[in-house]
Please model this.
Amino acid sequence: MAQDQNVTLSPERQALRARAQVRLIRPEEEGFGIRRVPEGVYGYSSAASSDEIPLFAKPIYGAFEVHKLAGGEVAWVGYVTEADFRRFEEGDEPFAMELYPEPWGEATRLVSVPASRVDRRKPQSRENGMPMRVEVAPRIERMDMAAHA
Model:
């Protein structure tokens, strides 16, 4: 079995999907852009930085897992370094991080990045682990606290 398939079948990923309450995209839904698929599904896309984000059921090397959550929000699933994970979780300030479709180097921490936290995403690199650079916004509740301080 290919390494990318092993990663997608990991208990950690399965638990993340269960928490997000998403199911694998069905054959008749494949190839459509994220706006056209139903809520509560996930799939894989090698065009995760595009606005369309077509989803497919079978992971290929370098493809990101993408969730369309209940309510319609999109979330990108990938791996970050421990330092970036802490900054993301704290959510105090904006910062840029490299999100990898599979573990790469020190980027071994699984994370789900909701669109509400993404200011900008840049096209995925085609080398060195194939990361997508994501500019992350602070948590909304952190911005609300700063506005009232």
